[in-house]
Amino acid sequence: MNKKFNIKIGILIVLLLLICAGCSVQQGEKYTTKDLDNLAEIRIYAAEDNELIKTISDEQQLYQYNQCLLYDDSDIEEHQNQLKERLEGEKEQYYLISYKYPVARFGKKALEENTTITLYENTNIIKMTVAEENIKAFSVSEEFLTFYYELSDEEMDFYHSLVE
Questions:
Q1: Using one digit for the tens of pLDDT, what is the confidence trace for 12-66?
Q2: Engineering a disulfide at 35: which of 31, 75, 115, 163 sits with its beta carbon 3.0 to 4.6 angstroms away?
Q3: pTM above 0.90, yes or no
Q4: Do residues 145 and 129 make contact, with C-beta atoms less than 8 angstroms apart?
Q5: How far lies 146's CA from each of 3, 15, 81, in Å?
Q6: Which residues pair with 127 in a beta bridge?
Q7: Which of 27-65 are b and which e, b meaning 16 or more Cβ less than 10 Å from the residue's Cβ?
């Protein structure tokens, strides 16, 4: 009888652990700073008058924004000049400026600029500029911090959905 009682208690404990584990998985939908790559917020400006349109700090949107930033850079160097030339004469539409939390735990608490993505009218090409303050060790020319990407319609739709 003692053996059967211990087996029943053991099964009960395992079932309770499984139930609790399932509950904690459902509650754990919050994103960590690691999931967000330390991204704190995105500010969207109209290119025409540099007016702030919107500030995004929703974790779900920040996570999707980070996922959209995973570009295929296999042959990016060869296409930079070509993409830059294709943008000549195109009108800038929006600036999406991302900000991250400072690395230091103490002292400076203001958010730091991370990247600026420029969206253009009538094209799927974007310009991404990495903020100079991200390079702490030495000075880097802006031309080495600017990258051009051609995106799919779905990716462009996502960026435009952030504005709306």
A1: 565 555 555 554 444 445 666 566 678 889 999 999 999 999 999 998 888 888 8
A2: 31
A3: no
A4: yes
A5: 70, 55, 11
A6: 118, 148
A7: eeeeeeeeebeebbbbbbbeeeeeeeeeebeebeebeeb
